[in-house]
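Teaching assistant here, posting this on the class forum so everyone can see the example we discussed in section. The complex has two components, and the goal was to see what a joint structure prediction looks like when all of them are supplied at once.
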Amino acid sequence: MAAAEIPSLAAKVRALEAGSHVVAAVFLGESAAYALGEGEVLLADGSKRTQAHAGAILDAASDGSRLFTSGDDGKLVATNAEGATEVLVDGMGKWIDHLALGPDGALAWSVGKTAHARTKKGDRSLELPSSVGGLAFAPKGLRLAITHYNGATLWFPNAPEAKPEILVWKGSHLSVLFSADGRFLISSMQEPALHGWRVADGHHMRMTGYPARVRSLAFTADGKWLASSGANEVILWPFGSKDGPTGKEPRMIGRQQARVAILVCHPKQEVIAAGYADGLLLLLRLADGAAILVRQPEGGAVSALGWRADGQALAFGTEDGKAGVLAL
Amino acid sequence: MSEKIPVTVLTGYLGAGKTTLLNRILSEPHGKKFAVIVNEFGEIGIDNELVVGADEEVFEMNNGCVCCTVRGDLIRIIDGLLKRRGRFDGILVETTGLADPAPVAQTFFMDDNVGDKTALDAVVTVADAKWLKDRLKDAPEAKNQIAFADVILLNKTDLVTPEELREVELRIRAINPFARVHRTERCAVPLEWVLGQGAFDLERILAIEPEFLDSDLHTHDEEVQSIALSSEPPLDPDKFFPWIQELVAKEGPKILRSKGILSFKNDPQRFVFQGVHMVLDGDHQRTWKPGEKRESRLVFIGRDLDEAALRKGFAACAA
């Protein structure tokens, strides 16, 4: 279906000029906040700006009250809705490539081959065999998954006596996430493929067939589907059974001219927001693939998406510095 | 959306003068800004906020081919740099003296995000006129860097006699007859000889000069050689593509670079391609001009290539 024929919510979008590459779009309380490529954080639906970093923001995450950003200035900074910033980590200029937030206020970040974790018990670090590709905390138990070349390492930062467990799979592993029940760990690879492990026994799940590298992946609210980019449509792998997608075919929804660049799943309903490489932004209903237009294709790729916790608003941003909020 | 950012890769054996060239590019008043990816901090004498240290992490792609390697650190660094893409006009990648240029070049073809937003402009190799001959004997990396280059700066020419210079140039030509070779002292060259080369741009594969192909002016290198093939009869694409794909799949590790301009039967357009090991990139370029000689030309630079088998295989692709 061409974008012009799709029912539209574009009238409910409040657009704003972010000014540079939007790295992340989140909600701090009720209002949208954006992390930008030039080191700024944009707050209060875009009405307030603060310089959080002296260089690019490389990664960002939010706990709902603060926006955590890591930069090529070697700092990890938390910014609240009022614009107050706090430097949590100063890595002496070395790029902080990735960060992740965990249960109980845990924070993890990586600098090259070193993963760091900060918990209530203090700071710990772990050297990996190669550069860290991604970080994700398990939903429970302060366990950190760290991807790297030839696999992922599972580490309990609060239990230094426990040897980190290594899940091996040949190739370079990048972004990583756990299923909401913690049973599965999924990584996106340098090849156009995903790899999954069942955490309990290391059972492998290969998810292949993508035309391009998968840069965005997320589980649906009920945990039954893993949604992924990497094609001109959203690829959905079934995770409803104990074997995950092993031996099953994926579903596809939202086919368009351009590739899916980024996606996020609605926090409550079976709806996915999918941003495309041509700037198109759609809401897609899982049940039947029905699409609603949020933004017409224009300019650069959609590079950031975030739902408000109540699912009633969606913030977005693009590579060429456009941003906006959809209020439902 | 916007133009691809050009990337220049600077290689060269230890002490050849890479850092001199890098500093020259950064300090000359050309009005361009560069992001620089270096292997060692502290070498650059110029203030530049966009200098990033590389880790030289070479990753094999998980596809069963040992030569399909990419530089994982470059993918990560370029992803980061692209968040500030308005800040620079080009990217310079300096490799270590012992680096193989292939994974660097392949990164630009094998990673879709890097390939969508940046374009490899040229591999520039700085060679030491005095010591290159010795390094070609004892350092396979030095030979790879010459074989791989689009532009070679034969540097420190003030330290050798004209005879020695000619000899080393012949050695370079024996390994790589297609690179542009410039004689320099302290890497003093006009920057337009180094930047904006479009060496990997299919649009700019204009000619494969026949004089290199037949003349005996060069001594053949015993290990790395170039082989040029040509065919006047037009080719059958249904024969050529299976042949070249099987060739690079089997012989990819030995083939460092390949380039071709092809004339297919019943096809008014010329087809151009180029490759790095087993990665091939090709497309129709333009319509053959009236009166233009419709000849197919193909060049391979590689190690221990089987010339007779290549000639036979290519000849069998005629329509």
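For the discussion questions: The interface with chain B takes residues 20-21, 23, 37-38, 55-58, 72, 95, 97, 112-113, 130-131, 133, 149, 170-172, 189-193, 212-213, 215, 299-301, 319-320 of chain A (CB under 8 Å). Chain A has a mean pLDDT of 94. Think about how each of these relates to the inputs above.
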